[in-house]
Write a sequence for this structure.
């Protein structure tokens, strides 16, 4: 499989030299999907909020911003309205029963996998399937996330750690997000 990535001039991102996620980060930064901070760093080990993840995901999918669709959520405003509205309209996020999205909270690996499962079902109808990873901590998967983790794993979008665990309750880092989005784009 071949993927073509259009790129723009890369920002310095001094802190990714030697980092395992360097190639994914540089590629996505060149595409305008991820960006660094004003200090010239990317902060690859920093956490990602739910709103930040959805924003990067909608850019990766090429979804048009739709601030009006985010009006359902009583806690979404400002810059996050467009991407959250686009993701909601595409059917890849739903929020909570109390009409909140909780966009400022760090996203967990389980939550990210469930959103990726929805992307696979609603946006990417045909992806290359791989063998599902056998995670040593499968019994710790929350019931609401188990199918999503398995689906995202089968599609090759999520991976585990060296000890064969997935760690569903860990928050997702910026580097992990970049790697998963890179794999998602490669499938398109």
């Amino acid at each position: 499989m071949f993927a073509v990535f259009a790129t723009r001039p890369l920002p310095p991102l001094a802190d990714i030299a030697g980092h395992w996620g360097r190639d994914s980060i540089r590629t996505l930064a060149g595409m305008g999907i991820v960006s660094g901070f004003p200090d010239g760093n990317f902060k690859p080990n920093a956490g990602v909020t739910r709103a930040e993840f959805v924003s990067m995901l909608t850019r990766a999918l090429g979804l048009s911003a739709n601030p009006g669709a985010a009006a359902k959520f009583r806690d979404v405003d400002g810059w996050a309205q467009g991407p959250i509205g686009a993701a909601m309209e595409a059917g890849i996020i739903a929020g909570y029963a109390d009409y909140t999205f909780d966009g400022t909270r760090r996203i967990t690996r389980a939550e990210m996998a469930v959103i990726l499962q929805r992307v696979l079902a609603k946006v990417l109808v045909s992806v290359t399937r791989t063998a599902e990873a056998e995670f040593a901590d499968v019994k710790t998967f929350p019931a609401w996330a188990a199918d999503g983790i398995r689906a995202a794993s089968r599609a090759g979008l999520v991976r585990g750690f060296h000890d064969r665990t997935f760690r569903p309750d860990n928050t997702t880092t910026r580097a992990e997000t970049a790697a998963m989005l890179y794999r998602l784009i490669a499938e398109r």
Remarks:
- The mean pLDDT is 90.
